[in-house]
Every structure is written in C-alpha cells, then in structure tokens.
Amino acid sequence: MSVWLRADAMVLGLDATDLDYRARTRSGCIPPELVSRLLERGHGDVVEFQAGRGEWFCALAWARVLSVQGREADAWEALAPYVATGWWTAVVAAAELLEGWGRIEEAIDITRIRMETGHPMALDAYARLLARHGRDEEAAALLAARIRADHCCDGPWCCRGLDPDTALGLLATIRERQGHIAEAVALLRRRQITSVNSRDQLAGLLARHGRIEELRAYAALDGHDEAVQQLAELLEEDGDVEGAIAVYGQADGPAVRDPNTAYELAQLLTRHGRGADAIAVMRAQADAHPSDDWILHALSELCLGQDRPPDGLAHLDALDAQRGGEGEWDAVAADRRLPWGRRGG
Fold first, then answer.
1. C-alpha span between 318 and 337 (Å, rounded)
2. CA trace torsion 198, 202, 203, 208 (10° rounding)
3. How far apart are CA 14 and CA 21, in angstroms?
4. What percent of the chain has pLDDT over 70?
5. CB distance 260 to 279 below 8 Å
6. Are 171 and 163 in contact (CB under 8 A)?
7. How would you classify the pairing of strands 195-196 and 199-200?
8. How far is the C-alpha of 48 from the C-alpha of 71, rounded, in Å?
C-alpha cells in the first residue's frame, strides 16, 4: 500500500470499522438509493464532491461512472482512499474494477494482500479470481488446504469465511473444468450441506455429464429434493416424460411429502397436457396444508389455467365450511391470481 494512499485515507478521516458500520446499517451516510437518484437527475457533481468527503456509496457510484467513461485513473483515485483503509468491501470493489479493465495481476495482488493478513472472506474471493483466469492449480492448492477431513461444522456460523463445504464446491468446479469428473463427484460427496440456494451442485454435475443412474440413486436419498427435480428435468429434456413423472412418485414419492416438489410435478403434468392430474396433485397438497396460502394460490391458478374455475371455488367452499365461515375468501378471490371472483358475490 503506497504512502499517498494511506495519507489520503487519513486526510478524509476514513476508518475501516466506521465505514463498515455505516455501510451495513445505512446510518450516518448518503444511502445508495439517493446516490442513484442524484446521478439520474444529472447531479454527478454532487456525487463527486461527496465521494471526496468520505461518503462510500458516492465514491463507489462515481468510480463506476468514471470507469464506464474510460477514465480508469480517475475511477481508481475515487476508490483509493477507501481501499487504503483495508476495508474488505472497498478492496472487492477495486478488484472488480481492475478485473474489468483487464488488469488481472493488480486485482490478484490487492486481494492476496488481504488474504495474507487473514481476512476471513479473502481466501474465497482470491481462489475464485485465480480460477477465473486460468490459475486452476494455484487455486486448487489453496482450496485443498482449507478442506480438513477431521472437521465437522456444528452450526452455520462455525467457520468464518471460506468453510469446508464451499471449498469442496469450488474445488469440484475446477476439477470439472479440467475434465476430472470422477474426482469432482468424489469431492461433492464429502459435503455436509448438499443444497445451496435450492440447487444441488452434485445433482447438476451428474446431470451435465449424463450420469443418469448415479443421479437416480442420489435423488432417491432422503432430503435430496433438488436432485429429484434435476433428474426429472433431464428425463423430460430427453423426451422421457413418463420417466420424469415417475421420478416424482405421485403415489408415495417426494411429491407427496414436499409441497414444492409437488408443485414442480404439477407444472410438468401441465406442460404435457395432463391438467386434471396436475390439479389433483395440488388439491392433495391444499388438503394436507390448508393454512399455506401459496398452495391455495397455486391450485387456483391451475384451475383457472385449465378453464375449471368451479373446481377452485369448490375447494374454497370446502375450506370455508371447515373453518366455520371464518375464511376470508372474498379477499383471496379478489387477489390478481383469482380474477374470476367469488361465486355468488
């Protein structure tokens, strides 16, 4: 870090802890929404001025404006005092700009500096950056060192920064890109948490490489509903619609146990002209989970889509009777999802 960068940070009175607090809480600062409004209304001079007075969201937005204009040196100057504090958010923003300008070595360098000082998030960012730019083995070595065979997380906050499961996923991505599919599969089978953001990386890997029987066995395991969906999607794409339907198991499979999986099955049935079966699937879920409004809405949409609004109204009447007339179905029917309204209203 150069002397002038440190000096600029000191002149502005910038402190990493204070910057982080204000950015996270949106207190004592100009929020990003207001910054966007100022730029939209042509007040770039105000944003530029405030960027030089310690307003992070102004500095970030102004640097991006300058970057789009091709003024790389000026964009860097806008962010430099914030980067000089060592604040991770500023380092990430600067690395993204440098990467976008094709200055990969500089992006790697400023990220590595924070990694070497022990920042919990830096290893993840550094490894991803290396992998994006063809330094697979260097990234793989860093990730492998993070994976401890004897470690078992006892909660979501056990590991700060790059946890072993994330490291396994990133390393598997590298190995897949290198063509080492078996190794990637083996790595992913070691994870404790199989689904992240409703996607299962192992299921996706098996599907991409046509390993149908392995995917089928994996989907059969309890709690692997995302794998069930991946398998069904793959079979549908291959033209095996009946096989895709069978994966969900209408009688005793995951579609019975899980409303989300049931919804996917209903959508599959609808796509292939089996609207009545789709309605039956969601009606069973609505009966089993009468308090879940989203299921009721899904059933109603299916009934409307199949031009069978009386079926949806009949279900509302049944629930109304079950609740002693206390259900607010007039309000529900008025919802945009039920444009056909309430019978007799």
1. 19
2. 120
3. 12
4. 82
5. no
6. no
7. antiparallel
8. 14
60 burial type by CB count under 10 A (0-12 exposed, 13-18 middle, 19+ buried)? buried
Q: Which amino acid, residue 3?
A: V
The size of the chain, in residues, is: 345
In order along its 345 residues, the chain shows pLDDT tens digits of 443 344 455 545 688 999 999 999 999 999 999 999 999 999 999 999 999 999 999 999 999 999 999 999 999 999 999 999 999 999 999 999 999 999 999 999 999 888 888 787 888 888 888 888 888 888 888 888 877 665 555 544 445 557 888 889 889 989 998 899 999 999 999 988 888 777 899 999 999 998 999 999 998 887 788 899 889 999 999 999 999 999 987 556 677 778 888 999 999 999 999 999 999 999 888 888 877 888 888 888 888 888 887 777 777 767 666 665 555 544 444 343 443 333 333
Record the tokens describing residue 58, joined without a space.
Answer: 């102004």
Rounded alpha-carbon distances, angstroms, from residue 133 to 105, 138, 166, 189: 10, 11, 19, 27
- CA triple 130-197-293, angle to 5 deg: 165
Long-range contacts (CB closer than 8 Å, 24 or more residues apart) made by 253-257: 253/228, 254/225, 254/228, 255/281, 256/284
Site of tokens 């009386």: 310
Q: How far is CA 71 from the centre of its chain?
A: 32
